[in-house]
């Protein structure tokens, strides 16, 4: 882990008009919270995407830090993308230690393994990666990628009925400790599948928490909220979207994919580019990546539920080991 310390800066958040009543699903929500990003010089926790194993690793890291005396859940701003959006909703609604224990408790009853305990097949994930690489190769830039990926996700959504959305929403809801947005600032990223425009949800967007998370995790089929459809927040800029932490004094980035990206460096969307920009803006930044010997749990294995306990243990071990080193930075 590399340390880079610079002077901090303070920005002021844009005033927000709070809705008086919850919006119905039929009403068009005011989804994009980007103008309201609360950059007030405090601490930001960035939780990147990385599939099911990535989510388990994120929970493990946060639990390890917590049990060693560093409570990252008290960040003034939490940014969640894809699997990281699920983690953001989880750690703001339940104890990190309990979330970690729940992952370990599921080890012997994982639906990823059948009666013969064989892991789930990896071909669907491999095929998804192959399709994504083909779309990237055909795209001119990040905006073009978002439009193309959105169009592909809309085609799949058109070929499915509303029960697909209902099942996906129920799956996401079952993962969350509660169904309400926390009081602290939490940003959840997505992309408008119809326009390719980046989107950021917060508790003032008129979107329920479970819908925001479901949209942020919609990697294949576009997810409908009201009249709009959304795809995975990892297509906004990258799997971390750390740029949203601009103006925060201290930024802790947890990246299951280790900051790597399939997109060309020339597009300027890589995590390293965003971290350089944060530091240039006065932020102190620290990153935590999975250990080198645990990389087999991610990538093509990212959706293998049988690997979640191992990924969580790896993250927990790293969190415990790094807590003392990060304590001065975080306080």
Describe the structure.
It is a single chain. With 331 residues, the chain is α/β, with parallel strands linked by helices. Helices cover 37% and strands 12% of the residues. It is globular and about 50 Å long. The chain starts with 42 loop residues before the first strand and ends with a helix. 48% of the residues are buried. Residues 1-27 and 110-121 have low confidence and may be disordered.
Count of DSSP-assigned helices = 9
- SSE string: EHEHHHHHEEHEEEHEH
Q: What is the rounded Rg?
A: 19 Å
Strand content: 5-15%
Give a quick rundown of the structure:
With 331 residues, this protein is an alpha/beta fold. 37% of the residues lie in helices and 12% in strands.
List the helices and strands and how they pair.
Layout: E1 43-47, H1 51-67, E2 77-80, H2 83-91, H3 96-105, H4 123-138, H5 142-158, H6 162-175, E3 185-192, E4 198-201, H7 209-216, E5 223-225, E6 228-232, E7 250-254, H8 271-280, E8 284-288, H9 308-330
Parallel strand pairs: 1-2, 1-7, 2-3, 7-8
Antiparallel strand pairs: 3-4, 3-6, 5-6
Task: Supply database-style keywords.
alpha/beta; 9 helices; 12% strand
